[in-house]
Predict the structure.
Amino acid sequence: MFASPRLPLFNRPFSHRATLLAGTAATALLTLLAMPSLAQESAKPATELPPISVTTTSQAKAGPKKKKAAPAVSSPAPVAPPAATASQSDPSAIPAPGTRSGSLTVPTAAEAKADIQLAPGGVDLVPSSAYAKSTPATTIKDALDYVPGVFVQPKWGEDSRVSIRGSGLSRNFHLRGLQLYMDGIPINTADGYGDFQEIDPSVYRYIEVYKGGNALRFGANSMGGAINFVMPTGYDSDLFGARIDVGSFGFHKLSVSSGGVSGAADYFIAGTWLEQDGFRDHSDGESVRGVMNVGYRLTENVETRFYLNANNVDQRIPGSVTRDAALNDPKTAAPNNVNHNWQRNIDTVRIANKTTMRIDPGTMLELGVFNVDRHLMHPIFQWLDYRYDDYGGFARITNESRIGGFANRLIAGVNLHYGEIDTKQYDNVGGQKGLLRANSDDEAGNVSAYFENHFYVMPDVALVGGVQFLHATRDRKDFFLSDGDGSGSTEFNLWSPKAGIAWDVDRAWQVFGNVSRSAEVPSFGESVSGPPFLGLPTIPFTDIRAQRATTYEIGTRGSRPNYTWDVAAYRAEIDNELMCFYSAFGNCNVSNADKTIHQGLELGFGVAVLQSMFADGPTPDKLWLNTAYTLNDFQFDNDATFGNNELPGAPRHFLRAELLYKHPSGVYVGPNVEWVPEAYYVDSANTLETAAYAIWGAKIGFDNGGPISAYIEGRNLSDEAYIASASIIDRANPNSTLFEPGTGRAIYGGVQVKW
């Protein structure tokens, strides 16, 4: 494999290390001085605390080998929803919001689901059990395939193009329009850049998806919303776990993990190595990732947790090709990518701390600090050498009380996120650095403050109101002046209110509606196009305005023993949408459209179409249908240039469905399908389209919750040539290189062992 230089963790200005250390010290100080009652509770030496441990999920299934369970610590639920009948989902299986049965800083999947479903809008929680043991769990597509409204386009290696409700469609590379978090700690850089190559879905316990304005609780400020990846802790992990996956096109993956509880301390650690040759030419890659968190329960009501995440990713880029090449010669890479050895190599070290304090039975305070050191080594049309230093902190308080006899739940918080980018670009000479062509220091700062309040006018009906204020700055100091001075700064002050209603018909059925505003500030990476010496048009980043949207949403979600549903309809009216009006060499010249509309329908449902076919009793066998359908209706709104044309970049209809037979012994088998029945445009002029496709696969496996599980999965078994991902442009022609072919027929298999 190709080597990439490493950036030492502490090879950065001392002031940033001081910021991090000071923040950590401040967090510890606040922990000790937060409340007199906490001080009294912590008066005894830590060694006198009773052991704090819980039974892990796997141990509960496996048998008598158990840890001692800690008493569940929960706050009174703000409402007492009507009791479910026997024919409905078991209400005893649904924890009260705010319950913490193990870690105080990280809820279990069931506890997190109870919390997230208080949102009066499109949210979802995907447990690792839904994908990690039955797929290679390599890309974000493996994890979010069955979340309606989330459109994931695989590109190459572990990279994907992701859009929620049409967010970031103009981003032809990396990520925009979506905020990524790890246990509530930002993954994105301060200017909004993100990269899914840094995420290994197989190590997370669950993934939370907050669509649009429903991400306000994280202070997220993008139209797409937020995705939060949550690691296990020692309380819900296995003492030891290992897995090996192999598959087509030279795919090999090895993962190991360990977790446990000892007295007041707990830990979880995991490492993954992955190597693949890739389906296309010039698409081989290798990655090594590691994650760790260590928690300590200072008192029954105070817990602090430290996080470490490190990634080393080396990946070659096959590039975009013409439509004809994608459909007729899908393995071929773009010649320029091969000749100049295009790559995307990333080294990242992320450290963070989060401390949670239950101040009283109805109030919880969370404090956190983080620092991220990232080095991007990216030979493309030029040799990009970017060093990122991101740091910040957050505070969030949740209070459950009664006002005038009515239940009330308040969430309020503030987020600080700052970042500096040492930006250097060189000539790409056969994959090596040539002459320096750009040199600048880019600084981004974001301060957001928000609150969201649920006021229960009836025991099962809540009126929801909230607002977020975002203060964002972008500053560039250009040191390469032979092509002109690109220095400049810009500032944004944006208010985003929200109002909604949530009706809990019963413990497992909710109806909701909301109206929300969102604001999205442009990032450095998309504010300019190619360098002037190539003759490409350039727009100064100071001329790009913030994207604003008003979104209307209604929906319902719920579950019963033999079926589940999740339905939402929305309409977003957008001003100044960040759009790609010119692209070349993989980059994009972004400007603001006038007015656009994003509207659609998100439909997810699961149903046991048959049961008790071969096995009867309290846990019969079932034939389960799982479906996620998304309708995308995105268009310009009387644009001066493009009229009411369709917005490029996303299909109008997208369907994922799986029919899986599940036997109580743990055996499962069944087919699945992905269907895009209509081609979609790749240019705003609506002159060039992708191609409709339908691909199918199947899987067979065994997982009874015991120490061994295994799977075999086939993908695109008909070996269809199709377009998996596409970049966008203002006006295309048949020779535009905007298309990335999907992977051909592939077989994967894996075995996991735990104890």
Remarks:
- Residues 1-89, 529-534 have pLDDT under 50 and may be disordered.
- The chain has one domain: 14-754.
- Residues 14-33 form the longest helix (20 residues).
